[in-house]
Each structure stands twice: as structure tokens, then as C-alpha cells.
Amino acid sequence: MEYGKEGLIFLKEITSRRISSISRVLTVGKDEVLKVLTVDSKGYIDLSKKQVKAEEIEQCKARYAKSKQVENIVKILSMHTNTSIGTIYKKAIWPLYKTHEHALDALKEILSGNTSILDNLKIKEEIKNELLKIIKERLAPQPVKIRADFKLTCYQFEGIEAIKRALLNGEKLSTGDIQIKFNILGAPLYECSLITINKKEGIEIMNRALDEVKKSIKESNGRFEPKTAPEVLGEEEKSLSEQLKEANSKENTDDEEGEENEEEEQEGIKPNLATFDEKAFNINNS
């Protein structure tokens, strides 16, 4: 758990489904989002996994990721200014939650130019300057890749040349900072991609480039068919080809699990839960 705490999770609070092995739902060393049920006078904590909703998991992971970023900044500030971590949290971080949903949101606002937030903190001037320096280094916008997939066909006499011309016309909308690239995934499927630190601007430029490709290919009696809208590639946003790979992988995994369950049913094997009756698993979610 966070802050080095330990908690107990009983078998009945792991999952409501019938399982043949605990390892199917819990993995040693993996971070899990759990719900705190009770904390007694001695500090013992009872946890639950099955009572956590899917949307709560995503919210908790997002909040935890933000908190880890803030923690890293605090640690660096502590080393650079020889100030205790507790003092920094008390005087510079916790006050930010009074005006913002999360301290990281306030730090990003400072980065965007609102330094008045720093003026309201009761910390030394040298610590303020060092904090500003650190957030500029740690929270500076990182380049992201934006991609869209589409089909492009032209069955006229100059079909290949018409496709080349349409893609080149789209690339001409590149700017000094943003270069648009087109690649073939496997005819007639193509991808448009670019790298930028400004997500909004990148998506707008890509949309204009795709509109230009569509306009050009139609002039040659060809066809443009979008498959995916421009999106930022990342853990939650994946391209069409990546989604297909994941779907195939999941299908293979489900087939393997289905075969395993079918074999157990045929052999009359039932999940052995008796050995776990009334026992608790100590989940140290560090």
C-alpha cells in the first residue's frame, strides 16, 4: 500500500467469480487498486478488490500517477534546498489542494505563467525559485505522436500516380515544427502521422492534411475512406493496427482459458478453495 502500510484481504473479498487459482486475479508484485473496508484501533486494515468499480480503478490510477509526479518533484526540491520532505509538503504542497483539485494541476498552472500561486506559499524565496526551476524541467510538455489510418483507392488509368499526388499534397501542409508523414500499411490501408508537443494544433493540422488528400484523390475519381480519427498514441489511445493485434492476442488467450476450463469440467475438477477457508492473504501493495 501507499506510505509503506500493510493490509489484509480475505478470500471472499478478492472476487465474486468462481476461480481455480488466486493467481488469475492477483499477481505478486503488481499494483492493485483496493478499497479500504475498515481500520481498527490497532491500525489493522481490511481491504477489498471485488468492491472496486472499473471507473474507480481508472480514477485512482490517474490520481496516483499525478501524486507520484508531485512526490518526485518534492524529493528533488528537498535535496537541492536541504529542506525536509515533510516541511515541503506542509508549506508548499498541501496548501495547493485548497485551490486546486490536485497539486499537480497547480504546478502545471505555474508552469503556464501563473506565478501568483507561488507568491501565496509561505516558503523562502530561494525555495520558490528552485521549485519553479524544477517544474520547468520536469513538467515541460513532451512530444506526442498523432496518427490516423485511412483507405485510399483509385482504379483509373493513373491510379498509382493519383495516390502519390494526393499524399504529397497532404504532406505540403507540414509546418516548420510539425512534419506530416504518410506510410502504407498494406494497400489500400495507409497511415498519417506526426510528432508535436501541441496536441490540439497537431490534430488540426492532420485533419487539414487528410482533407487535402481526400480532395485530391476525388479529383482523380478515387476514393478516400477514414478508418480512425486523428488520435494521440499512448496506453489508452491506440491505432487501428495496434487494436487489431490486441484483439487477436486477447482472443487467443480466451481460447486457451476456455480449453483449460473445459478440461477441468470434463475431469470433474473443482477449484480447491477449502484450504483457504477463513484465511486472509497479506497483500503488500508497495
Question: How would you describe this protein?
Answer:
- By secondary structure, the protein is of the alpha+beta class.
- The protein has helices at 54-81, 85-93, 103-111, 116-119, 125-138, 159-171, 199-219, 240-266; strands at residues 7-10, 35-39, 45-48, 144-153, 181-186, 189-196, 223-226, 231-232, 280-283.
- A hairpin with a 2-residue loop joins strand 5 (181-186) and strand 6.
- The termini are close together.
- Mean pLDDT is 81; it is low at 235-240 and 262-286.
What topology emerges from the helices and strands here?
Layout (H helix, E strand, L loop, with lengths): L6 E4 L24 E5 L5 E4 L5 H28 L3 H9 L9 H9 L4 H4 L5 H14 L5 E10 L5 H13 L9 E6 L2 E8 L2 H21 L3 E4 L4 E2 L7 H27 L13 E4 L3
Parallel strand pairs: 1-3
Antiparallel strand pairs: 1-9, 2-3, 4-6, 4-7, 4-8, 5-6
Structural class given helices, strands, pairing? alpha+beta
Q: Do you know the CATH architecture of the largest domain?
A: Orthogonal Bundle
Number of helices: 8
Distance between the termini: 5 Å
The quaternary structure here is: single chain
Work out the count of structural domains: 2
Q: Biggest sheet, in brief?
A: 5 strands, antiparallel
Q: How many strands appear in the DSSP assignment?
A: 9
Shape: flat
Strand content: 15-25%
Rg over CA atoms? 27 Å
CATH topology title of the largest domain: DNA polymerase, domain 1
CATH superfamily of the largest domain: Translation initiation factor 2, subunit 1, domain 2
Q: Would you state the CATH class of the largest domain?
A: Mainly Alpha
Query: How confident overall, as mean pLDDT?
Result: 81
Helical coverage, percent range: 40-55%
